[in-house]
Design goal:
The protein is of the alpha+beta class. The protein has 8 helices and 14 strands.
């Protein structure tokens, strides 16, 4: 069952957004009119919706709406991939809209605000850039992780709706992947606890911070393509609100800055 107070998202083209502002309400895009309801997505679904239905479309506007404001006319119904999607069986009103943000294109991919999408999995272009680097030298991966208050397991998973915290879901991820990391010669060489930011965004904080060392990039790639790892990564995806994963090349410490 979905949370009534959650944020749901709507993508509109620039002319459709202009009409909504001018008229005060809209029946949505042509597909919405044809289906008889306004399609919405959850924050977890929105990026796939953009890639599937708005590939390469510039000038999109991302609208945020509080589900609780839509009352009984918002229905959660099975759609793409068997997942539940929010559908509004009335016009979308300008007064329903909590925010409207431009959704720019970068190298053909829509860039969602981190507040909405977070950085949970690598983008294709980033993963390709990683694979293009030397695969035979040792690497150290800096991990910075911000957790969800409540884990977001997908519908159909055994832990969906069980009330686990993000920390509990991430602990599941660590427990199920630890042996895989070690079997490939990997190890955690540093971990720390966030205390304060002296330079940088004041609203940026991290719940988990560590450096994982791999004998080479081949070992890292072997881990993330391992079948057992792929099954376990659902815990990380459920746990993480946003994160940073930065590849570094080990170097001898100089004893001075720089």
């Amino acid at each position: 069952m979905q949370h009534e107070d959650m944020l749901i998202l709507k993508l509109l083209r620039t002319p459709e957004w202009a009409d909504l502002r001018r008229l005060g309400e809209t029946s949505g895009a042509p597909i919405d009119v044809a289906d008889g309801y306004v399609h919405f997505s959850t924050p977890e679904q929105a990026q796939e919706t953009a890639a599937k239905h708005f590939a390469g479309v510039d000038g999109l506007v991302l609208l945020g709406v509080e589900a609780s404001a839509l009352g009984d006319e918002l229905k959660w119904e099975v759609s793409r991939g068997g997942a539940l999607f929010p559908h509004l069986y009335r016009s979308l009103r300008l007064s329903d809209v909590a925010f409207a943000w431009p959704l720019p294109l970068a190298k053909g991919v829509h860039v969602f605000p981190e507040e909405i999408a977070g950085f949970v999995d690598p983008a294709r272009a980033q993963f390709d850039a990683f694979k293009a680097l030397d695969r035979d030298t040792p690497i150290e991966m800096l991990n910075l992780v911000r957790l969800r208050d409540q884990a977001n397991y997908p519908v159909g998973h055994a832990l969906h709706g069980k009330g686990l915290s993000g920390a509990e879901a991430y602990a599941n991820y660590g427990r199920e992947t630890g042996a895989i990391l070690q079997s490939l010669g990997g190890s955690i060489v540093w971990s720390g606890t966030f205390e304060a930011t002296l330079m940088g965004p004041s609203n940026e904080h991290w719940d988990i911070m560590f450096i994982a060392r791999y004998p080479n990039a081949k070992a890292f790639l072997a881990m993330v393509t391992n079948d057992d790892y792929r099954k376990a990564v659902v815990h990380r995806q459920a746990a993480v609100q946003t994160s940073r994963l930065i590849r570094t090349k080990p170097a001898e410490a100089k004893g001075t800055f720089g």
